[in-house]
Amino acid sequence: MASTPSPRTAATTLQNSLLSSSSSSVNHNKPSNLSFLHASSNSSSLKLFHSVSASFSPSNSSSTICNVIKTVESADISFSNARDLDGVVSIPKPTILVSEKLGEAGLDLLRSFGNVDCSYDLSPQDLCAKISLCDALIVRSGTKVTREVFEAAQGRLKVVGRAGVGIDNVDLQAATEFGCLVVNAPTANTIAAAEHGIALLTSMARNVAQADASMKAGKWLRSKYVGVSLVGKTLAVMGFGKVGSEVARRAKGLGIHVIAHDPYAPADRARAIGVDLVSFEQAIATADFVSLHMPLTPATKKVFNDDTFAKMKKGVRLINVARGGVIDEDALVRALDSGIVAQAALDVFTVEPPPKDSKLVQHENVTVTPHLGASTKEAQEGVAIEIAEAVVGALNGELSATAVNAPMVPPEVLSELAPYVVLAEKLGRLAVQLVTGGSGIQNVKVVYKSARDPDSLDTRLLRAMVTKGIIEPISDTIINLVNADFSAKQKGLRISEERVIVDSSPEYPVESIQVQISNVQSRFASALSENGNISIEGKVKYGVPHLTRVGSFSVDVSLEGNLILCKQVDQPGMIGQVGNILGESNVNVSFMSVGRTVRRKQAIMAIGVDEEPNKDTQKKIGEVSAIEEFVFLKL
Question: Ranges for the ACT domain (predicted)?
């Protein structure tokens, strides 16, 4: 196998290889396996018909694909081909809309890749009017990316980048349905947010903001602003993700006892920095300080309410640098007035900016800052670069490790799986072209053979690419990792997976991939396995995907160009006969392989060709007496 590329270049290398065909012809209308291209929201059936039209009514819309014998072309992408004066194919640069201020370093990176439109303070109507002309959108927390935005994009919008961590201002469900990748920048501002949390904690404990305002008003009130010590106190970190864990580290350095609540945090990671994971009730009941670092979700919205405050230790102090919506602000004012909450330090609010007459903001025991968690020079530049890299990577066909609405596939896994991604999609594409009849595709099974432990084999990306290969040739929907499972479900396609442990080298993630389609008729009867399913199998050899089994016949053919499968009587001269027919029609043969079950009985001849044989050539192949059936498949 070829050497594994670096995580940064793996997906790009894969894309470039997929976009290349021959030196004289480049097909830029064909999407790459990892590209996050626009997806149609229309649902179409997976019905296939041999020559006679029939009707089919799924839950949404329907379409029929007639005459499967015809070559199936993949869907086009939204960029149109253009040629310069020398006749060289060129692709227009993507348009990237930046709707909120972004650091210059990030903007420079974006400008080197595409056309950047910096339009700030857009109204929802203005955003919807612009978005159909954009391939990417970058926002901070102020822009609401709603379903209406995705609908207005008309399928062109491929990626939304959130310059920051929280993505509650983006409709993820709508993004997924429209095949739009959503990425964020979760690491660049982690330290800045954690430092701001500690700054609020310490300044609140010592009344720094109030004392400063008092002195500037000409007063000297030493006795009024007596604070509390931090050493020996208990801090409850509510949400033990990147920011929460960094706050915990710094709080430990101040001599604070730290506990945390997070239903998804691994206990060993918490123990590694001396933090005990406890229940929500135990955390709020025992803490002297409560620091919030949880996302805003339906489950966490206003989770800090009257009932929650009533369960807290009297005199607790609250810090929030996460999301304003997790606190019922009216309930917090009541808790402050009653003394249950002694003080609060807030950087975020339910509505930003909050009303000028907000009782919470004006409360004498509340310290406030205008959403400054990520507002350091270093963090702003870091976030700008991080989100720009993620957006450019997505437009280039890479899957960012910070993808929010797609499976989180680490860069090293992406790199390792790159050649298998190509194999998975081509097997799906081959399998669907073998289907005929009007029963429709409903059940697909993907079998992964590997020497690795099944639990350590991440197959989500491979499953998505099999789905892509099956759906795209017979539908107007463009499939990517974002919408693969959703699109399959919408079309009534059930995809199951099986992992089989084999005795081979665990150095490689997958020994082979097998795709089975059940309860369908086949254009090529020899592709049916003993149980009656269409079954094809392939593996990666020296970095190149190969077809290794068709039905019960073993073959060995590189999955490049196009493929002719012939079932024949196993006798001398067959390769020469078919080769001569193709040669007379100027069809170049790139490779050939013959697999048989029993000598001198039947065999499968797999022939790779650069061009599609015309009808006369295919007819001549079918007239060879020893050939029982054949099929042409476009890869």
Answer: 563-635
Using DSSP's 3-state secondary structure scheme, residue 241 falls into coil
Tokens 């960094």, residue? 246
The one catalytic residue in 140, 196, 323, 452 is 323
Neighbouring C-beta atoms of residue 340, cutoff 10 Å: 18
Going by C-alpha positions, the residue among 343, 290, 345 that lies closest to residue 312 is: 290
pLDDT in tens, 293-339: 988 877 789 999 999 999 999 999 999 999 999 999 999 999 999 99
The CA-based angle 249-381-198, given to 5 degrees, is 25
Query: Which segments of 217-328 does DSSP mark as H helices, in order?
Result: 242-253, 267-272, 280-286, 306-310
Active-site residue identified among 371, 463, 523, 549: 371
371 labelled catalytic: yes
Dig out the tokens for 218 from the structure: 């000409």
Cα 614 to the center of its chain, rounded Å: 40
352 is catalytic: yes
Q: Which of 73, 281, 352, 378 is catalytic?
A: 352
Place of tokens 């060129």: 90
Residue 234: other Cβ atoms inside 10 A: 16
* pLDDT tens track for 248-280: 999 999 999 999 998 767 778 888 999 999 989
In the chain, the domains with their CATH numbers are: 95-184+383-396 (3.40.50.720), 188-368 (3.40.50.720), 411-634 (3.30.1330.90)
Enumerate residues 6+ apart whose C-beta is below 8 A from 592: 557, 575, 579, 605, 606, 607, 608
